[in-house]
Amino acid sequence: MTGATGRVALVTGASSGIGAATARLLAARGMRVVVNYLRSGTAAEEVVAGIEAAGGQAMAVQADVREAAAVESMIEQVQAAWGGIDVLVHNALIPYVIKPFQDMTWEELGGKLDDEMRAAFAVAKAVLPAMTEQGRGRIIYLGTGLSRRPREGMIALGTAKAALAQFARYLAQELGPRGITVNVVEPGPVEDTRMADVFDEEHKQRQVAATPLGRLAHPGDVAQAVAFYASEDNAFMTGTTAAVNGGMSLY
């Protein structure tokens, strides 16, 4: 990837799943990667160790991305070591409930919305000064196909991620003149993630049957799309959404 060497990428929620796969791939392509985590310090350090063993550069930094002060502290740690953030991949999964609207409280729905947008807002605000100063930057938000295609019990996640997707488009419009691109990667169901264990095997097989490519995504499939948006190859795409779902959205 042209020009990747030395660029600094912050991946939130990078101790496992899509975040870990993305951190490894960006590091393999020459970026210095910040592996953010909330509680899984041991897992985050394992991701860092794997990257370093492969010849890459990484550091693990703890922060609750819902808290602006914690995010600012994380950015300060990174700047002291490596300078400003060139690439932000906001992947951290904010907890949510899976239940019908009828059984849901406003605290459950509104709380997810507030947490989702608070985190998206905080991380963008924190990386913006350095990106503006250098006249370039890449911001990639992880969304979900559920923001467009409702599924039973997923109203909290789907509604929050729909708000996130529109927020990203507004950022793309405003930040484009500064040389900063903002895009969204929307996976369908993904294997080998915490969410993958929520549903039973029958549910999974129905999802596979609805996917023209005949399987669910792996974290690495999603990471490949993120890595494109993070790269210098992506010079003229902003405000777009990549659906990484094996064709499931065709139906």
Map the helices and strands.
Blueprint: E1 8-11, H1 17-28, E2 32-37, H2 41-53, E3 57-62, H3 68-82, E4 87-90, H4 106-134, E5 137-142, H5 155-175, E6 180-187, H6 201-209, H7 219-230, E7 241-244
Helix pairs in contact: 1-2, 1-7, 3-4, 4-5
Account of the protein in words:
The structure is a single chain. The protein is of the alpha/beta class. The chain is 44% helix and 15% strand. The chain contains 7 helices and 7 strands. The chain has helices at 17-28, 41-53, 68-82, 106-134, 155-175, 201-209, 219-230, and strands at residues 8-11, 32-37, 57-62, 87-90, 137-142, 180-187, 241-244. It has a 7-stranded parallel sheet with strand order 3-2-1-4-5-6-7, with helices on both faces.
The string of secondary-structure elements, in order, is EHEHEHEHEHEHHE
User: Which parts are unreliable, with pLDDT below 50 for 5 consecutive residues or more?
Assistant: none
The biggest beta sheet reads: 7 strands, parallel
What is the CA–CA distance across the termini?
34 Å
Question: Which structural class best describes the helix and strand composition?
Answer: alpha/beta
Helix content: 40-55%
When the domains are counted, the total is 1
- CATH architecture term: 3-Layer(aba) Sandwich
Protein name: 3-oxoacyl-[acyl-carrier protein] reductase
Enzyme class: oxidoreductase
GO molecular function: 3-oxoacyl-[acyl-carrier-protein] reductase (NADPH) activity
Keywords: Oxidoreductase
